[in-house]
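User: Can you fold this complex?
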Amino acid sequence: MNFFKRGLLSITRRKGKSLILLAVLFILGNVIAGAISISQATANVEESIKERLGTGATLELDYEALDSMEESEMMNLEIPNLGEDLINQIGELPYVKYYDYNTTAFLASEEIESYNPMMEEAEGEVEMEGMGPQFQLKGVNYAPLLDIEEGKSELVDGRVFTDEEIENGTPVAIISKKLADLNNLQVGDTFSLSNEIYEYSESGEEEVLDSRDVPLEVIGIFEPKTVNSDTENPEEFDYMDMDFQNTIYVANELVSQEMEFSVGDMPEYEDYYVPFFVLNEPEDAEAFEEEVSPLLPDLFIVRHASDSYDSIASPIESMSNLSKYVLIASVITTILIIGLVVLLFLRDRKRELGIYLSLGESRMRVVGQIITEVLIISIIGMTLSLFTGNLLAQTVSDSLIDNDNNQSEEEIYYTEMQTDLTTEDVIDAYEVNLTGDFILLFYAVGIITILLSTVIPLIYIIRLNPKKIMM
Amino acid sequence: MILEAKDLNYYYQDGESRRFVLKNTNVSFDKGKFYTILGQSGSGKTTLLSLLSAMDTPHNGEVVFDGKNILEIGHDNYRRNKVGIIFQSYNLIPTFTAVENVLISMSITENELPDNHKTVAYNLLDYIGISQDKANRTVNKLSGGEQQRVAIARALSTNVELILADEPTGNLDEEMEQEIIDIFKKLAHEHEKCVIMVTHSNDIAEQSDQTFYLKKGVLNTNE
Ligand SMILES: Nc1ncnc2c1ncn2[C@@H]1O[C@H](COP(=O)(O)OP(=O)(O)O)[C@@H](O)[C@H]1O
Ligand SMILES: [Mg+2]
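Assistant: Here's the predicted assembly.
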């Protein structure tokens, strides 16, 4: 009858106490299993949403730092510019799959109409005179178009740019299908925009000072893919959609020439580029940021597409935090409660333990017997609470999401890194499951917790003096 | 000579001074003999036995088993493989049956034992006077005398040559007491064990092969 068998026998001979320990373990096990279920489900959401957000990264001004600046500081501030050289240097880093940088000009046109979903609905043609430039001339450096490569839009007709066109600023353009249909444009057709320089008189009236035509040949037609209209507030998305539909892709060089025309003889003008890098893997984000940050001018930071997770996932994030606190608290509680319960039971068994020692049993084996007993009961208790705790987590998180979601609506805002994913999508992705990972993690956490909880009782055994007990 | 005590000293620290329970105790024991150590209550009998059984360590002196200091053998090892101890208060595990209590000590020792522990344990209990029916009861359902027999069986089960007993009949009636003494005599004389029993009873002492007298921590061969 070795110590393992002795342990087994002790459990069945002391049914009452075994059941008490089992009950305590079951209750605590439920809390731990629930907390782990929720924290794992939130981690899964984070992973899948971040994957959907993509591996894009840009360099932008640190608006938070700007916001917190004193007014006097702001006055003397010279906002630095990101040069092409720096962007190219960063683009050559091994983490970067491909990259682009854009400079943008807004131009008007007398020849073609801009797409406006609101007008379509209103049926009657409301003239939008004096609305200023409505076409976003988006300069690119990456000939195959990043938006197409990244699946934000699809080329439905014609072709993308060639490297020569990008380099020379050839007057060719890629426009949206809606814009093309609206104006009866086909691949090979030419249309023209007008670059107007305004002057504002004292009275606030604007006056066209100078203007020139910008003729462009349509070489390709794209259709936006990601903007979905089946969300709760379609207007917001139509608005985004409108911007996209009225985007005209051209070479950076062409935009640069038009900007030069509009600024006239302003001496210190430099092209302002917004870079966009697509990384190989989501895991590269941190290393990329670490390597890039020191290269950047003051006040510039790296912003990842996945950063917007935080703004759309607040109900999940708060639940994730809550589950972590609950987990830590329940593990500490378990260590204390199980430690004390086992210690109390051992004091009852003082004589038995003394007998083992007087028979020459090593203290380590006596310790081994007690750990065996506690672990066997723990594993039974944990196995029972595995299922109920997971169920509990589903119920609890459903009601937590409901509460939280009602509180924090309308917190969506858009930055350079637009996403059409919403809090709704995040919540849809949230799912409490009984996965193998969860079961493994739960047993690991549970067993480590139980082992820690036996430390106090074991010190008691180590210090036991059999002579005092028995003679 | 199987067991020898050399210049054993044991004391309790009483503030600055030491109160000696055992003073320069020298004694030796042989196999095949039944010894008694006679002394009044508080004379240090249990203390001496705890040192001989390695349940405690003397402040000075040494206990030698088969020519080896028991510290060298290792106290756990010594208790596991060399000595069987019988206590005044039986010290059986109450949740286990009589036979299980015997089996436990058989699983702890490293001494060579016959393969079928269970059969050996039942036979041993039967020899000591515990029927199979009683052997299968949890020990708290046995009388005091029966429990002490189980304790004796447990002490013998590991095949040791040295049995130490601390007032084993202190809680038993006279009839039971005599039966236990008879077992001890048989173990010494028929099975070549060295049995050392501590008692305060002159009647028992008279039945032993040799008696040592313990008075105020001093051990003598005569009164
Ligand atoms: N823990 C202790 N602290 C102080 N004195 C003790 C302690 N235990 C026993 N003693 C003393 O040691 C002496 C011997 O005790 P013990 O060996 O138990 O005697 P016996 O078994 O002969 O009755 C007694 O006088 C007792 O009072
Ligand atoms: Mg005593």
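Chain A has a mean pLDDT of 84. The longest strand of chain A covers residues 206-224.
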